[in-house]
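Students often ask why we bother encoding 3D structure as a string. The short answer is that it lets us treat folding as translation between two languages. Here is a chain of 89 residues written in the first language.
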Amino acid sequence: MAEVATQSPAKPAPGITLSESAAGRIAWLMGQEEHKGLMLRISVSGGGCSGFQYGFAFDDAVGDEDRLFERGGAKVVIDETSLGLLGGA
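And here it is in the second language, the structure alphabet:
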């Protein structure tokens, strides 16, 4: 009997999906004077017994461990650890 080698498809890199309306709202917020030149940062941290805590803040830097997502003028930054917990959202 012949042996056939198969490969599993590569696991896609984790990511997020920005809807058109979410991207529009984020872009609008980024256009406000107090947020000019900033990006939305999303983070996830342990919350103890109550599960995860989700953080949203504006930031001006993309670090080595960050991924940047863009759509329609919106820029969202997520660190790799948080992205692993948010992947597919």
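Translate back mentally: The chain has two helices and four strands. Keep this in mind for the problem set.
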